[in-house]
């Protein structure tokens, strides 16, 4: 048991990868065998993720050196002080992301089992789904730049293939192609930056490169080549144009997973800015903090204004996803902007970062839930057009309740989790700039207005004749939504427990650059 | 002078390839040509990786008949191999997307591939 716990970081990626390639084999034996394997794989992946996260939150950063005699022997004896092996380094921030991916992937897989039951080509679908999960988990746990690129590409390719999986008049392929094209150009830019860094410092390990970084002109070029594609992949305005197309055309369960995958890119962006480039003495924190703040404020506002007139329910939700990403960028950006000022950092900077990070996990849960309810409605009615939907409240009571929970959470209404993280953001951002805090509240109100409209046009009104045969969705779909809804309520009722146990350690890990480096290279 | 120019050649080639690729991606309207641009960009980055791994008078890490055991650590070469494999997968997938789009839309002109808008 102990040795199993020691190898958790490797299992975290190995289990979904192995499952992905076993699925076509299991599919030969029949649908039941495949479904059993899918459930087993998802459960084991989540278990490994949650166990690893529990270890990190209890005992600090977990290292895993692939191929070494002992999992934490980062630097081989004869390497001259360079960690040459591939290393997974999971600190509290990474563990937070692992929790998000573990919970959502479990809920989404359960949901898919019923939602995709009438489709063909399920072998490929589930293989891709597990590859996407493996890519996301790898991105948030690796401590190696090139490894990050590989997992980024795995998640992009699997994501694009899944978006295009149900060809449907070609629209899905158009969405998938857009996603694949942008992801590939972005990933190549990341690879170029990795090449520039390697050429100067002869290392790929994030901690090693960070400790040697000289902040020359080439490093700044590398920073731009890293930060811009990652900001694009997390859907920040003005690089958000792919999100509505891709999120709308993907199957709903996949959209929920793509939200998690874009948050892994957000994690990458924070990791680059804070850990790789975050040298307090030689890095202009305020400029990059303001970069994130402006990106965040723009995303929040433009996202919600674009969402309001949409008629396609998933397109509307996709623009809201852009808008909510803005809150995360705003919160963490404010923390970064005041980082050099110890007084301001203690007074409100850390609260802002905690709000931003808390919003990441909250958003993954309620936005995933909302996309799943939209998928449930589409599953029964066959349309996403709000003008044609209506009166579903009596036929689909569970879906309606889950939608209400998600909608109230995204609008920041207590006692749901969106309120908890938005409150942290409001109160801290107000002390940084009252204007931005008011903007954030206005965006929240517009979000509420938009979701009241959606709720009204989907569930309220008299039952329509064309939806007479509509019933509640099958139990696995309800179970998948229930997992996410339970988290939304739980994190809303006892937010402090989450903040103390998970978010505060994650904030400390984010700002503790020296600690990240020392975990690999030893104390300074 | 000549040696320095020769050493800079790979990087100049990378720059030219990158410009060509960006030009194809930004200004071509034919999807296939855009994908060719993407492929060029992959080649440019791979060439860049191999070029930064070059060490003058370095010894390749092949132990058979090696003149000495002080050798070049082939990290970037390994990276390039991985990147090539990823690039092949990407190109194959996107070309198959282009095929489906041609079947469904009857065109590969990106000006006409616009069912998603709004």
Characterization of this structure:
The complex is a heterodimer of chains A (524) and B (118). Chain A has 524 residues and is mostly helical. In chain A, 75% of the residues lie in helices and 2% in strands. Chain A has helices spanning 2-6, 8-28, 31-59, 92-115, 122-141, 145-163, 171-201, 206-212, 217-233, 242-249, 252-276, 285-307, 313-337, 342-381, 397-410, 417-432, 434-459, 475-493, 495-511, 513-521; strands spanning 62-65, 87-90. The longest helix of chain A is centred in the last third of the chain and has 40 residues, at 342-381. In chain B, helix 2 runs antiparallel to helix 3. Chain B is elongated. The longest helix of chain B is centred in the C-terminal third of the chain and has 31 residues, at 75-105. With 118 residues, chain B is mainly α. Chain B has helices spanning 2-27, 31-52, 75-105. The chains are: A mainly alpha (524), B mainly alpha (118). Chain A binds chain B through residues 84, 146, 150, 153, 157, 160-161, 164, 167, 169-171, 173-178, 180-181, 184-185, 188, 191-192, 194-195, 198-199, 204, 244-245, 248-249, 310, 312, 315, and chain B through 25, 31, 34, 38, 41-42, 45, 48-49, 52, 73, 75-76, 79, 82-83, 86, 89-90, 93-94, 97-98, 100-101, 103-105, 113, 115-116, 118.
Question: What's the short story on this structure?
Answer:
Chain A is an all-alpha fold and 524 residues long. Chain A has helices at residues 2-6, 8-28, 31-59, 92-115, 122-141, 145-163, 171-201, 206-212, 217-233, 242-249, 252-276, 285-307, 313-337, 342-381, 397-410, 417-432, 434-459, 475-493, 495-511, 513-521, and strands at 62-65, 87-90. The interface between A and B is medium-sized, with 37 and 32 residues.
């Amino acid at each position: 048991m102990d040795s199993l716990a020691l190898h958790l970081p490797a299992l975290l990626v190995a289990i979904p990868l192995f499952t992905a390639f076993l699925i076509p084999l299991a599919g030969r034996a029949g649908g039941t065998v495949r479904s059993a394997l899918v459930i087993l794989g998802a459960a084991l992946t989540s278990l490994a993720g949650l166990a690893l996260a529990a270890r990190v939150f209890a005992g600090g950063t977990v290292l895993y050196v692939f191929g070494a005699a002992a999992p934490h022997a980062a630097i081989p004896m004869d390497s001259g002080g360079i960690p040459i092996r591939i290393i997974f380094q999971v600190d509290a921030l990474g563990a937070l992301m692992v929790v998000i991916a573990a919970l959502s992937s479990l809920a989404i897989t359960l949901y898919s089992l019923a939602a995709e039951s009438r489709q063909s080509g399920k072998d490929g679908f589930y293989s891709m789904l597990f590859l996407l999960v493996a890519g996301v988990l790898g991105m948030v746990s690796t401590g190696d730049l090139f490894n990050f690129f590989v997992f980024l590409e795995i998640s992009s390719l699997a994501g694009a293939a899944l978006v295009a999986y149900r060809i449907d008049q070609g629209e899905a392929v158009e969405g998938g192609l857009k996603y694949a094209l942008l992801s590939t150009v972005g990933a190549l830019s990341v690879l170029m930056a990795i090449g520039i860094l390697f050429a100067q410092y002869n290392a790929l390990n994030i901690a090693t490169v960070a400790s040697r970084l000289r902040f020359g002109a080439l490093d700044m070029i590398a920073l731009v080549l890293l930060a811009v594609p990652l900001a694009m992949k997390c859907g920040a305005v003005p690089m958000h144009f792919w999100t509505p197309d891709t999120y709308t055309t993907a199957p709903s369960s996949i959209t929920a997973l793509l939200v998690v995958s874009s948050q892994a890119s957000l994690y990458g962006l924070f990791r680059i800015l804070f850990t790789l480039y975050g040298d307090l003495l030689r890095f202009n924190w305020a400029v990059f903090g303001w970069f994130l703040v402006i990106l965040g404020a723009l995303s929040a506002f433009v996202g919600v204004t674009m969402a309001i007139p949409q008629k396609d329910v998933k397109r509307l939700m996709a623009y809201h996803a852009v808008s909510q990403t803005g809150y995360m960028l705003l919160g963490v950006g404010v923390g970064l902007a005041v980082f050099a000022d110890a007084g301001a950092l203690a007074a409100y900077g850390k609260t802002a970062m905690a709000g931003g990070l808390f919003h990441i996990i909250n958003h993954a849960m309620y936005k995933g839930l909302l996309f799943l309810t939209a998928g449930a409605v589409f599953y029964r009615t066959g349309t996403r057009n709000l003008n044609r939907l209506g009166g579903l409240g009596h036929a689909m009571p569970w879906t309606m309740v889950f939608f209400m929970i998600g909608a109230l959470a995204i609008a920041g209404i207590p006692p749901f989790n969106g309120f908890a993280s938005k409150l942290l953001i409001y109160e801290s951002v107000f002390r940084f700039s009252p204007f931005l805090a008011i903007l954030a509240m206005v965006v929240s109100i517009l979000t509420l207005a938009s979701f009241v409209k959606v709720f009204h046009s989907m569930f309220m009104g008299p039952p329509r004749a064309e939806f007479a045969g509509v019933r509640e969705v099958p139990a696995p779909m309800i179970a998948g939504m229930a997992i996410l809804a339970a988290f939304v309520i739980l994190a809303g009722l006892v937010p402090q427990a989450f903040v103390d146990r998970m978010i505060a350690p994650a904030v400390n890990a984010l700002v503790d650059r020296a600690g990240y480096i020392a975990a690999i290279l030893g104390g300074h | 002078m000549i040696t320095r120019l020769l050493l800079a050649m790979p990087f100049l080639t990378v720059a030219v390839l990158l410009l060509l690729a960006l030009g194809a991606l930004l200004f071509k309207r034919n999807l296939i040509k855009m994908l060719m641009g993407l492929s060029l960009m992959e080649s440019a980055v791979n060439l860049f990786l191999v070029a930064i791994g070059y060490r003058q008078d370095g010894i390749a890490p092949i132990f058979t008949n090696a003149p000495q055991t002080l050798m070049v650590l082939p990290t970037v070469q390994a990276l390039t191999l991985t990147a090539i494999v990823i690039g092949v997968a990407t190109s194959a997938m996107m070309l198959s997307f282009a095929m489906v789009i041609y079947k469904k839309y009857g065109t590969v002109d990106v000006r006409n591939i616009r069912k998603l808008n709004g």
